[in-house]
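Work Package 3 (structural annotation) set out to generate three-dimensional models for the target panel prioritized at the project kickoff. During this period the team completed the workflow that converts sequence records into discrete structure tokens, so that structures can be stored uniformly alongside our sequence database. As a representative example, we reproduce one entry of 730 residues exactly as it appears in the project archive.
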Amino acid sequence: MGNFPAISVSEDERSGLLYAFGIRLLAERERWPLWLPVFLGTGVGLYFALPSEPPSWLGPVAMVLAGLAGLASRRALGPLALALAVFAVATGFTAARLRTAWMAAPVVERPTGALTLEGTVVEVEMLPTGGMRVTVGKPALDREDVAVPDKVRVTVKPGGPDLSPGDRVRMRAMLMPPPQPAMPGAFDFARFSWFRRFGAVGSALGRPELLSSPEARGWGAGFTVAVNDLRHRITARILAVLPGDAGAVTAALTTGDQMPISAPLMQAYRDSGLAHILSISGLHITMAAGLVFVGLRTLMALVPPLALRYPIKKWAAALAIAFAWFYTLLAGSPVPALRSFFMTGLILVAVLLDRVALSMRLIVWAGVAILLWSPEEMIGPSFQMSFAAVAALIAAYEELTPRQGAWKAAHPGWLPTAGLYLFGVVMSTLIAGTATAVYGIYHFNRFAVWSVVANMIAVPLTGFWVMPWALLMFLLLPLGLEAIALVPMGWGVEGVNLVAAWVASWPSSAITLPILPLWGMVVFTLGFAWLCIWRRRWRLWGLAPMALGLASMVWAAPPDLLVDGRGDALAVRTREGRLLLNGKGGRILKDTWSRRAGPEAPERWPRRSSSRDGALRCDDLGCVWRIDGRVVALVRDEDHPEAACAGADVVISSVPLRGACRGVTVVIDRFDLWRRGPHALWLRGGAIRIETVADWQGDRPWAWHPHPRKKSTAPVRAPETRTADDDEDD
């Protein structure tokens, strides 16, 4: 770990708390490098939290200054550690800034209407409805007034040709920019698309025309296209043997394609706490690599001349690394799979080098690699939940393993061994489930109550029955004999599906929780890192910030009124605290509003009547809603807006008002919604607070708005300040 300079302290310092803290810190100096991904992640988080794009020189200059400060203070331990921490933060910041610039690609500015596009299919995802979602790379458009994206994602209805990656296609389609979040703080698909170079999404009009097929495929068409083509072909062969949800889940476990899974079954997996099984991650990669390693080593050991003359253990480790990399690529290289591959690969490399692998260091280097290569993944649920689960398991078993070993030595026999295995399954499920639950609440506002029970049954079934058959399926695929393995594998998958549906049907299987503010999640994460990284009793200090982070949900008040970017979809909070939606808007918008601002009220939006609590009254001109002594007018009549605005404190209009409602405190009309995107308003208590998607996204490359720096032309604008409570990021 390197030689650190000695430090001397006075007698007064020895009696201080600072000295006691320093002694504890020095006692665990071998754990200091484990904080590297925490500091790198801090820099990445600072970059994405900025309200505007920083200058390109800021990060490198901070790195140089921190490096010089480290060199100047290399003989003083405290300043040196501080300089190294700042250097790591600046490195993470710089990596995120460079990644954003590297992934820059054109984005269409507005809905295009019908046009013709031609390009090469990069990826095909089958939908449960029978259609497909096709990603077309380097498209050519028949319109010169439309920016040409690097990639477009188009939904194709059933009945067209069977497309595969590498095909050259032409189609009529309607494109639009990647949609903005449904409300401030919700999942930002525009940012997600930016880092995947999706410049447009849309729908095909009619059937695509297949221009060329087999000759365009293969490795010559590009590495990514070839891998996606292989995924598509394997998925198709799986579904040919196992139709329905059994085949769809089997495809998810082998190729990472979850799209064919029906919506009810997918919801059952989420509500039962088994959704992680569908994501190729540590369980799948580690099990597959372990089976290859043990299987190959066993087969080679059966040949005495080979086993006695050659290092078969290292050969098996090298081939296991190759298969783990192939499996990771086949899964589409999601973050959990990459993390697991890095860790499994490092363990097997240690076998090749005759070294002992240290588990916590493995996850640290896996985290560093992902943070430097794809820093945007840090703010997504896959990265956070995957690393939280593994870090918690490693930290816990650093304490439990010696005790389990001593107990097993004192209690020989198969019955205590079976009991120890059951204990391990229960403890692993509790530890991983608890660690990931907070991040699941932050991103999805959902908590699976019975996940421990579901995982106790489904995880062993997946690990000891499903995955071995999956490995055999890969071996039989080149011979066309995959059905031999797929049929028994399908039995196990059906069992897991039954467990998911059964547990999801239990009372309150999944509950919706209040919003966890960004600052609460950050405080919880820092406490969680403190608890996992240190080994001595002072690690328990991390429980305090973890508790504070969870308690932050108490102070997060959901908005009282929501309106989409067109003024069509509306939601108001009833006196009972539920969210009453007017029924307009897409499924994603309704689901997002219900999760993040709900629960949803059971009653329907009144058309020409009043709500149950009498606070909302609607007629042909619009609606009037009374809340906490304020009158809110929801206007939809363009001919007589003055009548609808009369006596209102707040006006929300789906039509342009052009200054018609003068004297009203807050006016938000169609132009404001067009410029600023969906709005959220807090009306109870003192001042009116307004947040918009445009303000929440900030002036960033992926955040496109017609006039990103212009405020609304409302007569009087309430403050639009944001607080840390509301700076959530999906």
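The chain has 25 helices and 18 strands.
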